Structures are given as structure tokens and as C-alpha cells.
């Protein structure tokens, strides 16, 4: 595949700058033979302005036209062949089977959002018809639906080079909402980003979309100018707490503040309850070790904290868990920067006087070695930040609590999470019923007898949670609810039928379900 390394602006390629950045082989560390041109300030501005110019045209298209665009993107992504898979593997060190599966997930979520557009419920249409005879005051005609907020800046994630990247969930949700996208390519897989961007551009051309509906820029330090550009109306981000918080602060400091929907940091606690340990402690130890080390621990839902109650069964589980973790081999991480961050996180755990190392070979070389630690419960009870910080990689920390009351206090000490898991039997669910309301306040997804690694793309999924898991707990970055982040309600008062959006017209030409005078209806008025 031919890689040009030029920025994407309004359907054309641009290389106005002289600074060149390189893609790297994740396994060997050597620079790949691809040159990428860092976007200049002028190019960042041009990309944002191109999205702004496309916005009124793209937003006004019937939802079915946008659905056709998303389906065309999906078809183009599915058509990317073995040479594309090989490029992704070189840039990320991820196996081909994982990339092929992620490619299917990426195209699948495009098609899922196309279904959302065709059924029309995303409009949230509400109609309160005029009541001119109402006493003491008449009511005017009021109609509400949701429209795309405007151009969206999307930042690619390192750990999912397809599903959370160029054509990933944020891009799919924004495009579905009627919002053109300016995508900031992740430095860890720029060639991958180019291949997918080409697929999006081809789909846009085939379906007659405005030229600026999708734009992409390369380079370091360009994100600040993008977030601060007045044309940008929202930001989608998946990455570190430090990076996400910086974007939130930039967006809040603008003359016109804008929302940042950032997924940032989560340790995803797993609570192993007594009856479950009695019945299947050995199996849980094996399964948990597989979840912790899956994909070299590079999932945002990786179980980073395991909590159990002091007992003979918990001690036996801990021994089996340590043995299972010790058997796990080293793996190559996404890039050298990720490995360096992992080593820094391990060093902090090793250095803490209330943390002891239970299993794992000494971290050295260019691969990540799985590790298991045990921390004193006082770190949670006293608000120590160490256990709150995600160590991105194949490691986890076990905490033992004395009794159910201490377990509840420890959970109250946790920050916001993407997931919280209960490994429990029916008797546990009765005895520990008080845990669920606490976990509901702490996490966006509650699991029972499963493991958090693995996020289904569907209508019901929530991949979000209270800060710092995400910057806005009211949304999700996976599943069809993700479209809500890039929509805002608009109310039309006493507008003539001809000037209303189709979703609000009397004839209901889209055939969507609407709330009419407080009652669900698909009927024409």
C-alpha cells in the first residue's frame, strides 16, 4: 500500500510543513520507511475551516444519506486486505487475528450507527401542539429535536488502532450525528491511520458527501491548536488522564468553552466474594490471570484491583492467583513509550512501603513482564493516590479487607471507574446486597460473574463512568448512546410546517416515533 504521509484537508492532501515524523516498528523499535508531514498551524486551521464549511451541508442531509455514508465506510474498511493488516501489526505489535477482529468491530459499529440513523430515535423528537383555548393562558406550538453540535475534533487511541482510532467509535458517532470530523492521528500508528483515512475519503466521494466531512492531521503539538480553534464544537479523546485533563482545561479556557468527552483512567475493581471462592476459587484465579494479561494488559477495562475478604479461601485463592500470574510470559507492548510508562508504574508500586510484590519476573528488556502486587487496605481507606492510578499493562493489585464493613469503606475510597465486577454466588448477592448501590455510584458498567476485558458494541452498552474514568459520566464512547455526546436539543416555537426539520413535520415523513402531547406516536398529525 502506498503511504504518502500528507495531511487530509477537504478531500485533498497537504504537506506544507517541512517537519517530518516517522512511524516505528513496535517490535524492533526501528523507524519504518514512511515519512509523515507534521501539520502546520495553517493546515490545522484549514482542516477546521473545511469541517466548518461542510457542517451546514452535511447536517442538512437526510439521515438516510448519512447512513449510506457510514455503510460505505464500513464496506471500504472491510475491503482493506492482508497488506493493511501487516502494516497495523508492524506499527502496534498486535497479532493479525486481533487486527482482523478489530477491523470487523470497526466496520460493525459504522453499520450499527447507520441503523440508528434509519430508525430515527436519535432525534428525540417531542411535540407539544398549540392549545389556543387553554385557560388562563394559551399554549403556543412547541417542537423539539436534536441536531449535531458542529465540527468535532477526535484524537486517536494507542491501544485500539482501528476501533478507537481513525474510523473508531468517536468518529462514527460524530458522523452519525451530522458532525464533520477533524481527526488527530495517533503517533503510534500513523500508517494505519492513513489507510483508514483513505477508506473514509473514498466512501465520502462515492456517496457524494461534502469535501470537508472528514479531515486528518499528523504531528506533535497540533492538538492544542485544534481544540482551541473556534470552529471546533466538541472533542472526543481516549488516552491518559494527563492528556485528557489537559484537553479539558484547554476547552474550558476557550472564549466559547466546549465539551470534551474523554475516556482517561480506570482500575476496574473486581470483588471476589466468599461463596464464589469456596465453590470455584481455583478457576477464578486462572480466569483472572488471563483477563489481566490479555492483550498485554493494554485494555482500558483491564482489572487493575482485586478485592476480597480475609479468609482461608481467600488465602488459597491468592496463592493460586500468584502461581497463575507467574506462569504468564512477557509480551511486546504497543510502543516504547507505553513500555516506559509501564515500567514507571511498576517502580512506584515496588517503592511503596505498604505494597509487596507477589509474582512476576523482574521487569527488563523490551517486553512487558506480568506482575502481581498486594497492597494494604489502608491505601484505599486513607485516600492514597497510588492505587487510584492505572498501571497500563499486564499487572494488578490485590487488597484484602477484614470484613464487609471495611469492604464498603474501601469501595467508598475509590475514584470513578469504567467497570466494577462482582464474582459471586446467589448467597453472596444476598449477604452483600449493600455493595450494589455503592458500585452504581462508582462505575458505568456493573458485571456479575464475568470479566471486564471485552466491550460489546450495541445499544445497551455503557463505556463510561464517573471522573476520572471519563470527563462526563452522562455518556459513553461505545454503543449507540455515544451519538448523544455530539447532539444538542433545539426547540422550534410557532414555526410553519415547511420550515421544520423532517422529524418534526406534521406528516412525519421519516416515520419515526415521537412524543406528541406527552404520548408516544408514529402517526401523522
CATH architecture of the largest domain: 3-Layer(aba) Sandwich
What proportion strand? 15-25%
- Low-pLDDT residue intervals, each spanning 5 or more residues: none
| Main beta sheet | 7 strands, mixed
**What is the share of helical residues?**
25-40%
User: Any idea of the CATH topology of the largest domain?
Assistant: Aldehyde Dehydrogenase, Chain A, domain 1
Q: Please state the average pLDDT score.
A: 96
- Report the principal-axis shape: globular
Radius of gyration: 25 Å
Helix/strand/pairing category: alpha/beta
Alpha carbon gap, first and last residue: 54 Å
User: CATH homologous superfamily of the largest domain?
Assistant: Aldehyde Dehydrogenase, Chain A, domain 1
User: Class of the largest domain in CATH?
Assistant: Alpha Beta
Write down how many β-strands occur, each being a DSSP E stretch of 2 or more residues. 21
Give the spatial strand order of the biggest sheet.
14-15-16-13-12-17-18
What is the count of structural domains?
2
Number of helices: 15
Amino acid at each position: 500500500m502506498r503511504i504518502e504521509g500528507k495531511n487530509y484537508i477537504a478531500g485533498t492532501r497537504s504537506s506544507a510543513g517541512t517537519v517530518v515524523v516517522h512511524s516505528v516498528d513496535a517490535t524492533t523499535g526501528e523507524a519504518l520507511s514512511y515519512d509523515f508531514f507534521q501539520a502546520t498551524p495553517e493546515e490545522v486551521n484549514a482542516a477546521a475551516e473545511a469541517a466548518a464549511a461542510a457542517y451546514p451541508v452535511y447536517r442538512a442531509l437526510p439521515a438516510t444519506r448519512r447512513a449510506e455514508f457510514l455503510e460505505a465506510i464500513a464496506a471500504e474498511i472491510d475491503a482493506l486486505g492482508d497488506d493493511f493488516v501487516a502494516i497495523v501489526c508492524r506499527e502496534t505489535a498486535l497479532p493479525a487475528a486481533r487486527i482482523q477482529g478489530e477491523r470487523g468491530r470497526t466496520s460493525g459499529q459504522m453499520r450499527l450507527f447507520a441503523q440508528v440513523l434509519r430508525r430515527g430515535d436519535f432525534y428525540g423528537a417531542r411535540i407539544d401542539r398549540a392549545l389556543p383555548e387553554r385557560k388562563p393562558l394559551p399554549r403556543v406550538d412547541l417542537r423539539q429535536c436534536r441536531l449535531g453540535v458542529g465540527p468535532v475534533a477526535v484524537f486517536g487511541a494507542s491501544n485500539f488502532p482501528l476501533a478507537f482510532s481513525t474510523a473508531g467509535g468517536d468518529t462514527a458517532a460524530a458522523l452519525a450525528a451530522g458532525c464533520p470530523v477533524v481527526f488527530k492521528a495517533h503517533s503510534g500508528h500513523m500508517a494505519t491511520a492513513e489507510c483508514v483515512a483513505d477508506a473514509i475519503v473514498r466512501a465520502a466521494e462515492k456517496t457524494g458527501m461534502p469535501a470537508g466531512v472528514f479531515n486528518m492531521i499528523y504531528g506533535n503539538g497540533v492538538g492544542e491548536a485544534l481544540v482551541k480553534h473556534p470552529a471546533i464544537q466538541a472533542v472526543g479523546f481516549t488516552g491518559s488522564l494527563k492528556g485528557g485533563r489537559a484537553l479539558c482545561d484547554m476547552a474550558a479556557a476557550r472564549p466559547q468553552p466546549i465539551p470534551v468527552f474523554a475516556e482517561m483512567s480506570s482500575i476496574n475493581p473486581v470483588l471476589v466474594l466468599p461463596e464464589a471462592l469456596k465453590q470455584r476459587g481455583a478457576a477464578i484465579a486462572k480466569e483472572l490471570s488471563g483477563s489481566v494479561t490479555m492483550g498485554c494488559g493494554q485494555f482500558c477495562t483491564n482489572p487493575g484491583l482485586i478485592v476480597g475478604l480475609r479468609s482461608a479461601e481467600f488465602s488459597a485463592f491468592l496463592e493460586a492467583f500468584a502461581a497463575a500470574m507467574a506462569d504468564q510470559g512477557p509480551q511486546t507492548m504497543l510502543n516504547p513509550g507505553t513500555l516506559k510508562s509501564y515500567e514507571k508504574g511498576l517502580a512506584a508500586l515496588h517503592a511503596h512501603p505498604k505494597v509487596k510484590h507477589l509474582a512476576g519476573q523482574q521487569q527488563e528488556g523490551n517486553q512487558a513482564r506480568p506482575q502481581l502486587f498486594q497492597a494494604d487496605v489502608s491505601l484505599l481507606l486513607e485516600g492514597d493516590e497510588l492505587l487510584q492510578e492505572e498501571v497500563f499493562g499486564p499487572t494488578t493489585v490485590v487488597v484484602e479487607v477484614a470484613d464487609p464493613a471495611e469492604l464498603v469503606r474501601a469501595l467508598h475510597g475509590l475514584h470513578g471507574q469504567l467497570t466494577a465486577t462482582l464474582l459471586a454466588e446467589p448467597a453472596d448477592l444476598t449477604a452483600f446486597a449493600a455493595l450494589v448501590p455503592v458500585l452504581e455510584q462508582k462505575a458505568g458498567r456493573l458485571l456479575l460473574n464475568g470479566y471486564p476485558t471485552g466491550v460489546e458494541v450495541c445499544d445497551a452498552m455503557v463505556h463510561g463512568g464517573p471522573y476520572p474514568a471519563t470527563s462526563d459520566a452522562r455518556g459513553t464512547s461505545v454503543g449507540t448512546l455515544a451519538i448523544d455526546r455530539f447532539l444538542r436539543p433545539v426547540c422550534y416555537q410557532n414555526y410553519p410546517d415547511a420550515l421544520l426539520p423532517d422529524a418534526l413535520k406534521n406528516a412525519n415523513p421519516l416515520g419515526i416515533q415521537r412524543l406528541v402531547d406527552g404520548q408516544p406516536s408514529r402517526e401523522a398529525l
